Every structure is written in structure tokens, then in C-alpha cells.
Amino acid sequence: MKKNRLKEIVKELQNASKMHLKQSKEVQQHIDDMGSPVKQKVDPDAPGTKRKPGYEPKVKRKELDKKGKKIYDDLRKENRRLLKSGMTQKQIDAMNLKKMREKNKDKYKEQK
Question: For the chain, which residues make up each domain, given as ranges?
């Protein structure tokens, strides 16, 4: 190899080191900005993520028994009725969550 080519390679490597240092600082800044996962609030009623603890797959009607299918159909019918009345799916979900929490709150009061 020629001496000039070796000098060129040295210069390229020095520039690469500077670039990698800059990239590492940017990545570290991003990590710092994200914060600790422990500090992030997690919705306990969220469905979760596949292959993670707390994940619950969607209910499939065909897997339900007769009573379950009736409940499933009634809930879907009520959901369609509310959508036709002008509510958004987000509003319906919030309303259902509120009802569920109130129901569970009453259940815990009875147990005490």
C-alpha cells in the first residue's frame, strides 16, 4: 500500500470516529428524554402488547358458549346503536370503562 493511501485511510477513520461520537451522543440524549419505563404511567385496563405480560387477545365470538354469545351480541348491538346516535367509539369506550369501574367499586364495597 502506498503511504498516501494510508494517510487517507487514517483521515477517514478519524472522521468516522467523530461521526460515531456524535451519533452516540444523540442516541444517549434520546434515551434520557424517554425517561425511565418505571416512571411512565401504564393503564391497567389497556389490552397490552402481544408476547408481553398483561396481553389479552380479542374475544372471538365462535369461541364463546351460548351465554357468552348472547352477551357478545347484546354488547355489539348496543355499540352500533350508540354509534348511530352520534357518539364516537372513543366516547363509547370511555363510558363503558366508567361503568365497569363503578361496578367493580361497588363489588369491593360489598366484600368489606
Answer: 1-32, 61-111
3-state secondary structure string across the chain: CCHHHHHHHHHHHHHHHHHHHHHHHHHHHHHHHHCCCCCCCCCCCCCCCCCCCCCCCCCCHHHCCHHHHHHHHHHHHHHHHHHHCCCCHHHHHHHHHHHHHHHHHHHHHHHC
Q: What radius of gyration, in Å, describes the C-alpha atoms of the chain?
A: 28
- pLDDT tens, the chain, 112 aa long: 677 888 888 888 888 888 888 888 888 887 777 766 555 565 666 666 777 776 777 888 898 999 999 999 999 999 999 999 999 999 999 998 898 888 887 766 665 5
C-alpha cell belonging to residue 28: 444517549
Cell numbers 396481553: residue = 55
